[in-house]
Amino acid sequence: MFIQILLVLLISGYQIRAKESFVLPSDLAQFLDRIGRVHRLHAITIVNSVGSVSPSYLDELHRGLMRNISNHFYLLPQMTATDEDFSPMRFSRLQDEETVYLVFAKDSMDAVIQLQAQRARGRRYSKTLFLLRKQESYQDLERFFKLLWTLQFRSALVVVASEKFYQMDPYPTIRIIRMRRLSAYDPHHLFPPPNRRNFGGYTIRLPVQQDVPNTFWYQNRRTKAWQLEGLGGILINQLMENLNVTLDMFRFEVNGSLLMNMTALTDLIVQGKVELSPHLYDTLHPNHLVDYSYPAQVAERCFMIPLDNEISRSLYVFLPFSFLLWLCLLFTLLIVEFVFVRRLMPDTHLWAILGVPGAGAARCKNRKPCRSITTFLILGGIFILVQAYSTKLTSFLAVTLTRRPANSLEELFRLPYRILVLPSDVEAIVASLGHAEEFSTKFSFTNPQTFEDKRIGMDPEYIYPISKVRWRFFDLQQRFLRKKRFFFSGICHGSFPYQYQLRVDSHLKDALHRFLLHVQQAGLQEVWLETCFRRAHRMGYLNDFSTLAELEEKLRLRPLALNLLVPAFSLFLCGLVGSGIAFLVEIRQSFGCRQKPPPTNRNPGD
Ligand SMILES: *[C@@H]1O[C@H](CO)[C@@H](O)[C@H](O)[C@H]1NC(C)=O
Ligand SMILES: *[C@@H]1O[C@H](CO)[C@@H](O)[C@H](O)[C@H]1NC(C)=O
Ligand SMILES: *[C@@H]1O[C@H](CO)[C@@H](O)[C@H](O)[C@H]1NC(C)=O
Ligand SMILES: *[C@@H]1O[C@H](CO)[C@@H](O)[C@H](O)[C@H]1NC(C)=O
């Protein structure tokens, strides 16, 4: 009796063990059936390498999955592919995320793992079951999980030798979890959840290169700690704080230079040394072994052109004589001459009406009201003309006048400056704007260091290509300048998206996308731009020309203003002398008019 009971216990124990392993294909089929039902999956993909699983096992598994109408995957169409057709087709093109992947591998080094990573790109949320045929040592297993994490399989369940089950928890460091009894787990917890909100202090290595205004170093005055700054820097800092991620930042020098080198940065990501780069860069030449975030900025790339179109102040006296004013003057004189002088008062002389001394003295006795009105009208007109001139002149003196800046390609080619570019810029410019020959004579090539130095220092020797966001930042340098150094032209060669670079299927990608959307909706970039400018200025990455502006104010503008007064004052003196003489002549004439009968005043032309 006692022995019998023991036997039953043993048998039942054996039964449980049998169900807890996938030695029998039907057990695996049952397990998959349960997973498919619980998670409402639409598809199942089975991948195997040669020798990783016996064909009979696979046949039995297929049969188990499709056996009867109550099976979850019963109605799915089937597709068989072999590696021979060497198309790099991805599963992700055929299947959505509601898919379970079954990967049979010989051992933890099997190449099928890498193949799966390539083919299921973009499907790292999907549940993936790795079945390793061979027993693995714990060290091998650790290495294997590290590889899985590098390839970003976030929801992976590993089965070793059909009966040992392992999961991982990657945060804060990769931890392997042995699952003793599969049936004891809630089916929702069999696969690790692919996304987490709190990374529990997970550490990522972050390479930092200098790219003002997007990334640069800043030393906090209070804590004396060096921190990442810039539009990209602040965003990454804030995001990582939200996710509870520790940043392990390092200066990434390439060939002795700290300037941004995107080739080197993407190489780091492809080699698996870093997960994310905080640098914003356009994706004109995307690297397909790297993922890109949503565009954090979309900005057009145009030219910044030296502003050398100031009109000399000594020419200001002539400026109010616009074409219209001249025309008015001519028109008035013609009307006066032909309508009034010739028709209405044929025997009067124009100069007398204008009140030129000596001319009208002859007629000082017989004044008609009509003539007085005409005189009044003409004098009024002249008065208005003079007022218009002086108002314009004074308003010109209050500002700095410039000519219209170059805003078309022809005007750009006519400018005496060359365009400073990096060799990599040429293709984009010429492809968009054409005129390859004109541009080829205009371009002046240089290395990134010189280019950055000259552009950020606003060296007025060259024209530079620049994106709108960067221009808005650099433009802050000259905001207090009375005479701006550069202007942003309307000659643009396309809008480019600026994106962050991430490891393929990175676990940071979705969090970054959500965060980018929040930042854009809140308009935080605008606020950060000002903060970044102050910090970049304090760290000496750029100049603020405001101090220079004060200097200019003190040294140049005041003496200039005094100089300006000299011609004005001389003109005033001339006027004074002239009117004095006129006054004297007038007095003499009026005396003469009272004493004698008026002499007939004749004009030489009359
Ligand atoms: C169909 O599946 C149900 C439950 O999964 C099982 O009880 C039944 O025996 C199966 N029928 C056949 C014909 O295999
Ligand atoms: C970040 O993670 C650490 C380690 O798990 C934890 O102690 C800390 O409370 C977390 N911080 C926040 C803000 O959640
Ligand atoms: C490194 O810099 C030196 C000198 O600036 C240059 O000659 C060399 O080509 C550079 N090497 C690489 C790999 O860029
Ligand atoms: C950028 O990095 C690549 C790869 O490391 C290197 O070949 C190239 O010379 C670097 N460019 C510059 C300008 O240093």
TrEMBL record:
Compartment list: Cell membrane
Main location: membrane
Keyword Translocase carried by entry: no
Topology class, membrane: Multi-pass membrane protein
Listed GO CC annotations: plasma membrane
Keyword Magnesium tagged: no
Residue ranges of the TM segments: 315-341, 373-390, 564-585
Keywords in alphabetical order: Cell membrane, Glycoprotein, Membrane, Receptor, Signal, Transmembrane, Transmembrane helix
Signal peptide: 1-18
PANTHER family: IONOTROPIC RECEPTOR 20A-RELATED (PTHR42643)
Name of the protein this chain belongs to: Uncharacterized protein LOC108039954
Protein source organism: Drosophila rhopaloa (Fruit fly)
Native organism taxonomy: Eukaryota, Metazoa, Ecdysozoa, Arthropoda, Hexapoda
